[in-house]
């Protein structure tokens, strides 16, 4: 790769050159990261030995704390190494849709929107709210986030599916326990190097007035755009910009991304399971349960990973669930390959 990067003819094809330089940078970052971990590990082991010889517990304690941080960093890099799918490194769209149940599920959808926004901020990803449809009384009917950052799609892709909430309803005057469902759909942003052909004649384009809080920032004209791809039934919508032209352009980008994601799923071993998880927002299709009453527990139904701190999870503490789901997905694909060979 270094030989290619030093080829004077490399920049004759700017897009290929940029792709090569990105890959080179990622490899450099990975190799240097491992070397730094190894060096820090050796340095701190030596510090512990030195501190024990001199009876200086403060030095030992500081080195041990550093080793704990190194362990967490090594675990994070191990997960990053799993993100080698075709589109894993891309930015991503994340859609939230409330299920049946009116205000209850719409409030739950809003909680999920906040959870993923908080998670992305913790990862230092950039988050843009592209569209939101408010509920009649509270919460949201749907919303779309654009999450920008290296491996954003790779991290979030296993979150697609139905999420179930059990709690004492704040909207029930009798304080009864309610079960609510909302769905998450994640699909990667398509860059210019990926060609997705869509016939405009296959699409219906509607404009409407933006909704949601925002005072003067809410449009008083029909600037929001919805595009329906008739052959597949895929629907995308954008109301982020005041300009209908800009919203239309972003909606086309979203549609291309959805079409690309559909093609990716055809090639992945987990496609059928994921498609089944989206067929209905209700019982039997959920990937994760969030129980706030009568006990407190968040449990992933695919991997068995659980947390007894739902408030932390709903505040964006999701990495443990994502890491387990990624490992589960990779092991499932490996098992499928073995079965094919057999």
UniProtKB/TrEMBL annotation:
It is found in: Cytoplasm. Residues 34-80 form a coiled coil. Gene3D superfamilies: 3.30.160.20, 3.30.70.1660, Release factor (1.20.58.410). One of its GO terms (cellular component) is cytoplasm. Methylated by PrmC. Methylation increases the termination efficiency of RF2. The modification N5-methylglutamine is found at residue 216. Residues 209-225 form the Prokaryotic-type class I peptide chain release factors domain. SUPFAM superfamilies: Release factor. SMART domains: PCRF. Keywords: Coiled coil, Cytoplasm, Methylation, Protein biosynthesis. GO terms for molecular function: translation release factor activity, codon specific. Belongs to the prokaryotic/mitochondrial release factor family. Peptide chain release factor 2 directs the termination of translation in response to the peptide chain termination codons UGA and UAA. This is Peptide chain release factor 2. It comes from Rhizobium johnstonii (strain DSM 114642 / LMG 32736 / 3841).
């Amino acid at each position: 790769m270094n030989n290619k990067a030093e080829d004077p003819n490399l920049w004759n094809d700017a897009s290929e050159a940029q792709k090569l330089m990105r890959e080179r940078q990622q490899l450099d970052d990975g190799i240097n990261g491992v070397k730094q971990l190894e060096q820090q590990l050796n340095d701190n082991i030596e510090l512990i030995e030195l501190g024990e010889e001199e009876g200086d517990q403060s030095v030992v304690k500081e080195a041990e704390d550093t080793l704990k941080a190194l362990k967490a960093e090594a675990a994070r890099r191990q997960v990053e190494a799993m993100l080698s799918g075709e589109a894993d490194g891309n930015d991503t769209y994340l859609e939230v849709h409330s299920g049946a149940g009116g205000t209850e599920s719409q409030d739950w959808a809003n909680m999920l929107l906040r959870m993923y926004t908080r998670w992305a901020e913790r990862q230092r990803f950039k988050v843009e709210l592209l569209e939101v449809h408010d509920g009649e009384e509270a919460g949201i009917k749907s919303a779309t986030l654009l999450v920008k950052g290296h491996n954003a799609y790779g991290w979030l892709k296993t979150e697609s599916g139905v999420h179930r909430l059990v709690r004492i309803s704040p909207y029930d005057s009798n304080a009864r326990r309610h079960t609510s469902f909302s769905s998450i759909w994640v699909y990667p942003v398509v860059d210019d190097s990926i060609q997705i052909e869509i016939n405009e004649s296959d699409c219906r384009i509607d404009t409407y007035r933006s909704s949601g809080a925002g005072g003067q920032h809410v449009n008083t004209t029909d600037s929001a755009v919805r595009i329906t791809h008739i052959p597949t039934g895929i629907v995308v919508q954008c109301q982020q910009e005041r300009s209908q032209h800009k919203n239309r352009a972003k909606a086309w980008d979203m549609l291309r991304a959805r079409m690309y994601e559909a093609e990716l799923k055809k090639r992945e071993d987990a496609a059928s399971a994921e498609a089944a998880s989206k067929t209905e927002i209700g019982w039997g299709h959920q990937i994760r349960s969030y129980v706030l009453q009568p006990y407190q527990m968040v449990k992933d139904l695919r991997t068995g990973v659980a947390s007894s701190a739902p408030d932390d999870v709903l505040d964006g503490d999701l990495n443990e669930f994502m890491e387990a789901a990624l490992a589960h997905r990779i092991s499932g694909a490996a098992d499928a390959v073995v079965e094919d060979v057999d």
